[in-house]
Amino acid sequence: MQQKRHVQNKQKKADVPDKDTQKRGQNEEKVLEKIRLARNMITNAELLFAKGVKSKNFADVLKNGQERLAAALSELESSRKEKK
């Protein structure tokens, strides 16, 4: 009986990620959210342009989205290199 409990406790400990792994996962989720937001900005700007909506800040929104996407992608790449 004690041996069975010991095995169950080991399995519980194995299921819980350590704090470093958990923190890296949270950071990666934040970066992925930044990427989603940047892609949405670009898509929205493209849709407005396709509809023919004339906007002075269209180019600024598109450029800003592209810059955010590039920054988030480089951040994601560097965080993945740290894992290795």
Can you put this structure into words, describing what you see?
With 84 residues, the protein is mainly alpha-helical. It has three helices and no strands. It has helices spanning 2-15, 19-51, 58-83. The mean pLDDT is 76.
Order of helices and strands: HHH
Query: Could you give the count of β-strands?
Result: 0
Biggest sheet, open or closed, and with what strands and sense?
none
Helix content: over 70%
- Regarding quaternary structure, what we see is single chain
Measured by DSSP, the beta-strand proportion falls in: under 5%
The shape is elongated
Number of helices: 3
Low-confidence stretches at least 5 residues in length (pLDDT < 50)?
Answer: none
Average pLDDT metric: 76
Class by SSE composition: mainly alpha
Biased composition (Basic and acidic residues): 12-28
Region (Disordered): 1-28
Biased composition (Basic residues): 1-11
